[in-house]
Amino acid sequence: MKIKNTDLLKECCYINGQWVSENSGAKMPVYNPANQEIISHVPKMGGDETRMAIEAADAALPEWKAKTAQERSEIMLRWYELMKENQEDLAILMTLEQGKPLAEARGEIAYGANFIEWFAHEAKRIYGDMIPAKSTSQRIMVIKQPIGVVAAITPWNFPSAMITRKCGPALAVGCTIVIKPSPESPLSALALCQLADQAGFPPGVINCITGDAKSIGAEMTSNSIVRKLSFTGSTAVGKLLLEQCASTVKKVSLELGGNAPFIVFPDADLDLAVKGAMLCKFRNTGQTCISANRFYIHTDIHDAFVEKFKTEISQLKVGDGFEADVGQGPLITQAAFDKVSAHVADATKNGAIIELGGAEHEKGGTFFQPTLLTGLIDSMLISKEETFGPVAGICRFSSDDEVIKLANDTNSGLASYIYTKDLSRAIRISEALEYGMVGVNEAAISSELAPFGGVKESGLGREGSHYGVDDFLELKYVLLGGI
Length: 483
Ligand code: NAP
What we know:
By secondary structure, the protein is an alpha/beta fold. The chain has helices at about 45-65, 70-85, 85-100, 100-120, 160-175, 185-200, 215-220, 235-245, 270-280, 300-315, 335-350, 380-385, 400-410, 425-430; strands spanning about 15, 20, 25-30, 40-45, 130, 140-145, 150-155, 175-180, 205-210, 225-230, 250-255, 260-265, 290-300, 355, 370-375, 390-395, 415-420, 435-440, 460, 475-480. The chain binds NADP nicotinamide-adenine-dinucleotide phosphate. NADP nicotinamide-adenine-dinucleotide phosphate (NAP) binds next to helix 7 and helix 8.
């Protein structure tokens, strides 16, 4: 697969509007997870270059925040248009480095670009307040101002959208940003920077650093110029970064791991539930934070659901994301493959039954068979941790109270799904679930229009929607006297 716009393939970092290499020439390979071949190299930068990028973002801040919302919006909309124009090339780069089927990669580019468009318009709606004061000679004015320089650290599973979901609100309100993408998928990030450059963002407004996570993260979290850290990734790293940010008291948003329950009640439309289960279990090879991780199926419809789900799963074509009709690509790394294998081994050791799959796919490498297990119990690893792979584990339940207890019995609280035709049950269960998001008869819940985020150890803050700007703003109270 070749891209048409070869300018999008970058092997340098983007700092202060310049494409730069690491001084000593240190580089890191970028692999194609479908065949383990090296696609490209990116610089292996560290703390010093991160500091340079932060200082560039700081220098660019006064001019960027002084622009009118309309001016920032126009540049953002040009960026959005360029993403749409280059959608196919961006999708090809993503499938190459991340492995997801090309159709899914195209979808992610469109989804990611929407955050830029949505927040470009939201830039014009950063309203303040005027509060009646105690004295008639006073007014209380509340204004919202950009927090300042933002550091963003992103994962490999959505290499484009996790960046635009942060850049959209940050840039719209007048912040500047330094991005550290995942080493597994840096090409998508650098291609976005190339388009940002073309769109006309002033130098330093957007910067992107690839390299050693620990030293980049240490600089981002300890440098007092950075006023806000926005992280998407695992809960373990999120906790560490939260601790590291304490020394400079930064505002922190965390979009962390999930352990989503997918609950099907006896009155559900089973075909709709199976369609949703396929989407939210096998999309991106099960490597999404909102992937269903535990399926709770009412005992009355358990066998019928399993039969239908099994039929659908068995039709899933596994392969390189560039092959026609592929619905499931490789896992990102050998470590990811090993985790999925360990979860299946632990489940079967503890009594789960393999209905389908359960092992390495014949394609080898990190390809894993789409897998269906029944007899899930809550002490299994697969019930307790994010599997992050194409394994659906099913547990029976008998009552609403029982399933709410099972579903909430986790430290995670990101996404949850329920299938029922009973409106009152839908409302009761949605309110009882300790999750940031609930899909009712719907598995495709992500959108730039809605607040995405979790409770408990799944994170802090929300991305997307008008709530998404709050994390990048500071409130200022001004008391006007002598009126
Ligand atoms: P990860 O291992 O936590 O890595 C995420 C990012 O953090 C990578 O860029 C990584 O770089 C960096 N990182 C790791 N250690 C660091 C440190 N000490 N200092 C600074 N940066 C550090 O997560 P992942 O495996 O890439 O992503 C999968 C996880 O993300 C899953 O748990 C998934 O649920 C979660 N996720 C959550 C959401 C959400 O919106 N809630 C969305 C997508 C994914 P290196 O790889 O170089 O270490």
